[in-house]
Amino acid sequence: MTVTVPTTIPSLPKSPLSNLSARRRQALIVVLISALLARSVPLNATSTLRGWKEDRAARKAERKRRETETPLNTPALEKKLVDLYIPDPSGSRTLLVPHLGRISKVRITPTSSELYASHLSSFPPLDPGEKLGVNKQFWKMLIAVLRVAFPSKTGKEAFLLVLHTFFLLSRTVLSVMVARLDGRIVRDLVSANGAGFVRGLGWWFALAIPSTYTNSMIRYLERKLALAFRTNLTRYIHDLYLNDNLNYYKFGLGLAAAGTADQFITTDVARFCDSLAALYGNIGKPALDLLIFTSQLAASLGPMGTIGLFANYGFTAWVLKKATPAFGRMAATEARLEGEYRAGLGRIGRDGEEVAFYNGGKREKGILLAAYEKLTKHVHTVFKARIPYGMTEDFVIKYFWSACGYCLMSLPILFPAATKALKASPSHARQELHHEVADRTESYVSNRRLLLSLADAGGRLMYSGKDLAELSGYTSRVYALLSSLHSLNNNIYPENPRPASLEEDQPFYDLSNVHGRVIIGPKHLLIRGVPIVAPAGGAAGAERGGEELIHSLDMRVEQGEHTLITGPNGVGKTSIARIVAQLWPTWSGLLERPIHGEGGIFFLPQRPYLSIGSLRDHPHTYAEMKSRGRTDAELMSILKHVHLEYLPSREGGWETRKEWKDVLSGGEKQRMGMARLFYHRPTYAILDECTSAVSSDVEGLMYEHAKSLGITLVTISHRPSLLKYHNRHLRLGDPTSHHTSSTPLTRTPVASTTNLTGLTAPQTPSTPLAAHGWQLTTLNSTSAEEKKELDHEIEELERQLGEVGGWERRLEVIGRELRGEKVHG
Ligand SMILES: Nc1ncnc2c1ncn2[C@@H]1O[C@H](COP(=O)(O)OP(=O)(O)OP(=O)(O)O)[C@@H](O)[C@H]1O
């Protein structure tokens, strides 16, 4: 009988569990891995370690403090949360975050402007025609975003990554051990070795504990890593989005990337981080598995088998690359459509009352459904594209790979076995049969398990090609957001050539060509030669530039010069405020204004702004109030001036937290705005229709009070009744024809020119101004001197009127003398 014994099968190393030297080898591997990991820690590890230890000690102390506290009930918690955060002179903030009935203190250090400046060159604007996918541009974008998500080689993320890598390596080592043990158990079973079999089972369970722990830790660390990436990106974006350059406003205006910021900052960033953290595990681990398993199998499969294995990898990668649709572009499109749908929902939430009054639910539903349909249609396309791809993937990885595995395994068994069989003597054959079969069984079981793991690793590596493509989509979204914010922050816009269709005399306002001068700090407000232009970004901006509302405005306001701005709807009144507040650019000319806030200039817009927080938070947070020595009594006296003294008792105290924009009436909201003005007492206030919902009597009292506090008012309004609180009047549009009734009927403009440092308005007030004209007049009756002069004039006229009787008598005498009559006396 011919026995096919594969002598060339190098018997697998004895099980590490039963062989001491093998165990030593395993230990050596672990030591080597640890040494490798230790090497990955940079040389300045001592200081890093010290910093890390200090951090850990601080975190431990904070945890202990929280653990010793008894959880609070909601009202007590709310009382403790009187401050949203505690500011620090260094610019950091300690946030008070409620968590499980206790308050966690989280210190947030703002991102430095130097860091933003150093990152600017990494985020050039994305070319709209850029092809999305796993290409050179993708790697560039990924590296740029990683500078934010993974800021330091010695930071928390690096530590997590090292730990993650360690567990990934451990899992591979454990998988090899399990494969060997599997073979060993079956071998003992085949050779009826009961003791060995039981020992094997014992090791089986012993290995189960580190294996399951390793698997759980891998998942945990992957999520921690994703969260750490997200935290870094989110804080960086928040600091860039909500800074003094008003990037949030400009982003909303559509001057940057198309899309809504909330979708970008929430979903897209989260998806990017999850995808990136998972990809490390999905690529790193299988790649490592592939190396280790291949090296383990190479000894069994021989050089031909190993070459075959690599040829197989190459072929699979090529087939899958050919079969992969543009997953990156699809992911980016899906994110954009999700954003549009989300924006629709957000709008209904925000303007719910208005929609309800207009009974606009049906229309909004239509808009929402259309957005949702657009999204589902796209998702459908993605699903469909996945069918052939999934089939190819499954066929290649599950079936083709298994068949190849069997073939490869058969190579050393079938061919060298024949040679060995010829050489084997029949007397030895029977004797060795038992051992050889057992060895072969062990070898087969171990190899099969390794091959299965290899197929699994290879499969995951190939699947991750799709993940990588999707990551490229998310990367492009996060990159677009960061790049847009950087551009906005540095006022960088794409340069647009002047459109040929524009007439010669038409100015072209391109955002990349803004050269007005803005000086913040003077004690006056000066606008000299500034065009009032509504900016336009994107395609609209390229086509016709910004919209000119006023060709050039000159106005100077010194303290005490209360100025009322009137004009027809849409003429550009609020736009002046937008330019002064620097929401819109100063295209040319000069703008000088005080600093924003206390002691400077304050803006009250048409729509009152009320943040979520306590009633007290509206002028200031509790901590800020305390640091400035302001008191509740002072707050109450301010509320009296705006006739809202009933509010704290009606709403349950100063600490009550509510969605104030829904709780207060329109007039109350506007009066709260005035209360904030009185609290901050700026030198100048630009009031834009901010009392339109307040009754005239209260409005008058508030204006008088503002003036008594020394606040110079620049008011935008349609109410002629407000004219009496101002001594100058800026009329926009054509003042001879507009019907806003802001023209004073009883008060005559005494001059059409301003007498302020040579700033002049058009010379003839009666001349109809151009559609985009303006006229600044000084009103007379509020000046004491003018009043005195007028009194003198009246006295003189009355004196002259008193003389009329005498002159009439004299006229009669002269007439009689001329007729020859005799006149006596
Ligand atoms: N965000 C914007 N983007 C582009 N154009 C805008 C924007 N806001 C306003 N405009 C344009 O600027 C014009 C002037 O707007 P503005 O708000 O200054 O008018 P207004 O004089 O204050 O009008 P009203 O009396 O109705 O408040 C509008 O007609 C509009 O065309």
UniProtKB/TrEMBL annotation:
<dbReference type="InterPro" id="IPR050835">
    <property type="entry name" value="ABC_transporter_sub-D"/>
</dbReference>
<dbReference type="GO" id="GO:0005524">
    <property type="term" value="F:ATP binding"/>
</dbReference>
<keyword id="KW-1133">Transmembrane helix</keyword>
<feature type="compositionally biased region" description="Low complexity">
    <location>
        <begin position="738"/>
        <end position="749"/>
    </location>
</feature>
<keyword id="KW-0547">Nucleotide-binding</keyword>
<feature type="domain" description="ABC transporter">
    <location>
        <begin position="527"/>
        <end position="759"/>
    </location>
</feature>
<protein>
    <submittedName>
        <fullName>ATP-binding cassette, subfamily D (ALD), peroxisomal long-chain fatty acid import protein</fullName>
    </submittedName>
</protein>
<dbReference type="GO" id="GO:0042760">
    <property type="term" value="P:very long-chain fatty acid catabolic process"/>
</dbReference>
<dbReference type="GO" id="GO:0007031">
    <property type="term" value="P:peroxisome organization"/>
</dbReference>
<dbReference type="GO" id="GO:0015910">
    <property type="term" value="P:long-chain fatty acid import into peroxisome"/>
</dbReference>
<dbReference type="InterPro" id="IPR003593">
    <property type="entry name" value="AAA+_ATPase"/>
</dbReference>
<dbReference type="GO" id="GO:0016887">
    <property type="term" value="F:ATP hydrolysis activity"/>
</dbReference>
<dbReference type="InterPro" id="IPR003439">
    <property type="entry name" value="ABC_transporter-like_ATP-bd"/>
</dbReference>
<dbReference type="InterPro" id="IPR027417">
    <property type="entry name" value="P-loop_NTPase"/>
</dbReference>
<feature type="region of interest" description="Disordered">
    <location>
        <begin position="733"/>
        <end position="769"/>
    </location>
</feature>
<dbReference type="GO" id="GO:0005324">
    <property type="term" value="F:long-chain fatty acid transmembrane transporter activity"/>
</dbReference>
<dbReference type="Pfam" id="PF00005">
    <property type="entry name" value="ABC_tran"/>
</dbReference>
<keyword id="KW-0067">ATP-binding</keyword>
<dbReference type="InterPro" id="IPR017871">
    <property type="entry name" value="ABC_transporter-like_CS"/>
</dbReference>
<dbReference type="Pfam" id="PF06472">
    <property type="entry name" value="ABC_membrane_2"/>
</dbReference>
<dbReference type="GO" id="GO:0140359">
    <property type="term" value="F:ABC-type transporter activity"/>
</dbReference>
<dbReference type="InterPro" id="IPR036640">
    <property type="entry name" value="ABC1_TM_sf"/>
</dbReference>
<dbReference type="InterPro" id="IPR011527">
    <property type="entry name" value="ABC1_TM_dom"/>
</dbReference>
<keyword id="KW-0812">Transmembrane</keyword>
<keyword id="KW-0472">Membrane</keyword>
<comment type="similarity">
    <text>Belongs to the ABC transporter superfamily. ABCD family. Peroxisomal fatty acyl CoA transporter (TC 3.A.1.203) subfamily.</text>
</comment>
<keyword id="KW-0813">Transport</keyword>
<dbReference type="GO" id="GO:0005778">
    <property type="term" value="C:peroxisomal membrane"/>
</dbReference>
<dbReference type="GO" id="GO:0006635">
    <property type="term" value="P:fatty acid beta-oxidation"/>
</dbReference>
<feature type="compositionally biased region" description="Polar residues">
    <location>
        <begin position="750"/>
        <end position="767"/>
    </location>
</feature>
